Amino acid sequence: MESAHIPRPAQQHVLIVEDSSVQAMVLHHILQEEGYLATIAVDGKSALEMASRLRPALIISDVNMPGMSGYELCRRVKSHPELSLTPIILVTSMSESEDVLLGLKSGADSFVIKPYSRTHLMARIAHALKPRPQTSPEENAPPIAIEFNGHMHAVSATRRQILDLLMSTYEATSQRNQELHESREQLRIKTQETQAANRFLDSLIENIPDMIFVKDAADLRFVSLNTAGEELLGLPRAALLGKNDYDFFPKHEGDYFTAKDRETLAGGKLIEIEEEPIHTVHKGIRLLHTKKVPITNSEGVATHLLGISEDVTDQKELEKRLAELHDALAARAEELEAVNKSLESFTWAATHDLRGPLSVIGGYLGLLQKSYGSTMDDKGQRYLSMIGASVKGMAKLIDDLLDFARAGVREVSKTQVDMNHLLNGVVTSWMQADPAHAGVTLRIDELPPTHADPALIEQVWVNLFSNAVKYSRRQDKPLIEIRGEETGDGVTYSIRDNGAGFDMAQYDKLFAMFQRLHVDVDFEGIGVGLPLVQRIISRHGGRIWAEGAVGAGAVFYFSLPSQDTARQAVSAARHA
């Protein structure tokens, strides 16, 4: 194949002889970039024809080619009367010790060793193209006899050819030695890096808390075991290496371990064993969570088996105890629920049944006051008044207990609630009930809506608002502040007063039935209102809490979940 370029006086023509099209095109590209005109011949025969026709300034030929080798091509060129002075550079891998000798015998001018650097190649080309005498007294000199490997060889090359060839060989060899040195240095660095990585990996394996072991694929004998494995099994690795499972464990365990090992090697992939019991020397039977994976060679054949075992005995025991506790708590919760239902039923029945006798007592008390009140002295009147107050107090207690019982059994019917409208109704009723309430200052912010049972939440506001009024009425300027804000999972409301407050040290009594933090002489009450509020809020999936200080007022908070949050809580409770 000839280049399409037409020779120009300023360019020197180089004939490339190369049967590899890729290497030929690479060399052709390099020569063109360096300003040479290049032509490619694919074999020795076509190269001779082109050389005769083109008269190149230089021939660069591969040594190993089909049909005619580079050495044979060189001999024919050097024996051609019109081409004998054409310098020839042979490209070789220098894989044989006789390459230099063959080059001398063929009359080559220079060597370039594959793979070559561009700089070295261009230096050889420049040297080969230097002007030289057309005739030389050495041309008719007798051949030089050279002994090599016990044989004599006649070399008819000129002294200059011999020196040039030897120099190029030396340079090429030096280049190859430098590359070899650099390769060895890179290998040394890579070896050091590999050794460092192996030391790190060995340290990691030795210090990892799980047992790591390696077995050979043929007989499943241990070839490696880390420190955690020694501590778990209670066996030194020296006693374990070279032996198999049957040497240390009961037969049924050995059979099981061996079967899993063979399954892993046959399947060629990782298998995971959630629980496997194993006998140990010092710790008895332990439960292991094990992963096994085959280790293969470059051909994909399994040569070893890697195992990683985690001791999960304590974890499984803890899970078992937690499950038992959960079952016990669930049973206890069912018992408490049954007890609560019984107590609610009893409270309902008891308070309902008390209404009759209390009504009779109230009726007779009224008759006594009407028929005989005018004839009684002051002491008698006082007795009747005390009985009347007790009847009213008892009636109030019965009503509160009935409300508390209803709050526990009544179905909660939730809907969207406008808190501003609901609270306005509570405040209006309270103002109309007693004109004296007009002295209380109210500050009510805009309240966000919620999703709740309107009647039950109204009861919450009635109780909390009544308490705020009751405990702040002795202040010169009683103040009640009500606020609300949306939170990430619902809404929170608060009601603050500047009244008597309470001692936080007694907080645990605040929401307990019949527990009161103030005496009746100061503030009337029976201790049912706040427990009722807590029950209502709890049934909505919310919570209530308070802060206070003696003589500095109190603030009560309660939060209600959003509709989505409440639905999720109910769903979670059903699936628990």
Question: Can you walk through the features of this model?
Answer:
With 576 residues, the chain is of the alpha/beta class. The chain folds into 4 domains: 13-181, 3-Layer(aba) Sandwich (Rossmann fold); 208-311, PAS domain (Beta-Lactamase, 2-Layer Sandwich), CATH 3.30.450; 313-409, Helix Hairpins, CATH 1.10.287; 414-575, Heat Shock Protein 90. The protein contains 15 helices and 19 strands. It has helices at 21-33, 44-54, 70-79, 99-106, 118-128, 159-207, 227-233, 237-240, 251-267, 313-372, 378-409, 419-433, 454-472, 529-539, 563-575; strands spanning 13-17, 37-41, 58-62, 88-92, 110-113, 144-148, 151-155, 211-216, 222-225, 271-280, 284-296, 302-311, 415-417, 441-444, 450-452, 479-487, 490-497, 543-548, 554-561. It has a 5-stranded parallel β-sheet with strand order 2-1-3-4-5, sandwiched between helices. Strands 9-8-12-11-10 form a 5-stranded antiparallel β-sheet, with helices on both faces. It has a 5-stranded mixed β-sheet with strand order 14-16-17-19-18. α10 packs antiparallel against α11 (378-409) and α11 (378-409) packs parallel to α14 (529-539). The radius of gyration is 53 Å and the shape is elongated. The model is unreliable at 1-9 and 135-140 (pLDDT under 50).
